[in-house]
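Support request, please re-run this one:
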Amino acid sequence: MDPITFSIIRHRLFRVIEEAVITLKHVSGSAITNEGHDLMVSLYRADGSLLMGGVGFLHHLTSAAEACKAIIRRFEGQINEGDLFLLNDPYTAALHTSDIYLVSPIHHQGKLIAWSACFVHVYDIGAMNPGGFAPDAQDIYTEGFSSPGLKLIDRGVMRQDVWDTMLNMVRGPEMVALDLRSMIACNNVAKDRMLALTDKYGEQTVDEAGRLLIEQSETKLRARLRELPDGEWQSRQYLDVKGEVSKVVLKMIKKDDTLVFDFTGSSPQTKYSLNCTKWASLGGLFAPLFPLLCYDITWNEGVIKPITMIAPAGSIVNCTRPAPVSVATVGAIQSVNNAACSTIGKMLAASALYADEASAVWHANHFALFMFGMNQRGGESIGILTETFAGSGGARTFADGVDVGGEIPNPISRMANVETIEASFPIRYLFRRRLKDSGGPGKFRGGTGAEMAIVAHDAPQGGIHYVLSGKGSKFPMSDGLGGGYPGAVNDYVWVHAPPEVAASEMFSQNLDKIPGTKEAISWGVFPLMHKDTLYLRWNGGGGVGDPLARVPASVVRDVAEGTISPSAALQVYGVVLEDGNVDEDATTQRRAALLRARTEVEA
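Re-run finished. Output below.
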């Protein structure tokens, strides 16, 4: 193909996705979508294979491909021009029931030429807990509406019976309808732009460009893999729910131009909704692989071909029906993310050519905090606090991680403004800021996470309730690299206010000064009522290299900026400060003493 035509079509495909994402965000009324960017839009070939992956949560690129293929199988002979299909069954393709895929066939002159697909985390899915994350669920049947595929729009006409049935099963049907309409609009834009592209260049030319693009991506990734050293790298992640500990074990094997991700040895599926299905694990390992190994390669089917996944059936990373999975995205799936990120980082660090592209694990422990109840205007509200999307950057082999720096699996993630959340729920923030000493220590420090505290405010019912879930706060998960330490753990504290609280104490600026009895929590449904406070913090990124090799001037800067404490400077980094300056002789002696102590422990 003429290289200029190929380049134009490739860039036009990128633009199709960008315009569809903009449409999705503008139509949606949900902060998790238009501010948190919990979304995905991608294009697929006529057979359902990935043509071009878009931004957002990258776990969904491969899962949505399987959704397209499932629809093709299920509706063979019934896929018409103007149709639109819905799928959200985790045992068919989706990550969990709250992530609804809308997939749209694209026909040109009566011929199926492509698919567009998108998802958002819908406002509610009818699960036993509001918002869709259901820590109380015992099986998939209590996790809300679930479909392996249905036709929502038939030849351009909404199937009102299906639409009404879905909205009849959820809390807040108006907001769920808006979520669905935003995805319908997104697919319409993608379809219109693809048809305009096809009208201009012809169906055969566009299809050939897609085939070559996939071939090019496979060739480029295989060439990159051949430049990397052969070997095996391992990682292990732990999850803790109510004292029950599960693990995700990964051995990544690199040989020639292939990668195998083997999860043999991972824990059996659990009774808690942390489990994930096979398709979710596949998406979970690709989510960090796309940006770490394919940052300059188009994300499509060609990237998938050199990769093999082994995930034993019945394990926490390949559970069998009807195991609950509603918390999978912040549970086993993210643990798969972390393990893959860790092993890929180790492989890159072992290469002289690619060492500068290695990274410690980024934000490794999402929390899911869904609030529900009557808002300050007397209406019902359900929604997630988006702070977890702010994340934390893992350190690189040449630089610190970015403080509150997002996360690897979603290049455009961010958190909503405080004002957005306070306008949606009857709450007030006491504070929200970077968390001192949360970044993993190292020669290069991991980016910090953050901490926050909220109280009820102007609440007609005296407060609001929330659903809290995640992987617990017992284990560090943001692994370091090359001697770097992991980032700090998450923490969740319910502060029970005493009967009488002084007005001045209601604006406390740290956890220690918030009045009341402090109770550690991490899983379940809780009230935020009257003068009680909810405090939480999220983990920092992993560090790279020995903390005792960090340049003392960088430690001084960190202390001055409040990212590490003077105590950490002395105890972890071995830097002795005197009036804010480095005492060089004392620092040399201190570091030597810390090194000797390590040797004695090892002996």
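The longest strand covers residues 244-255. Residues 3-219 form one domain.
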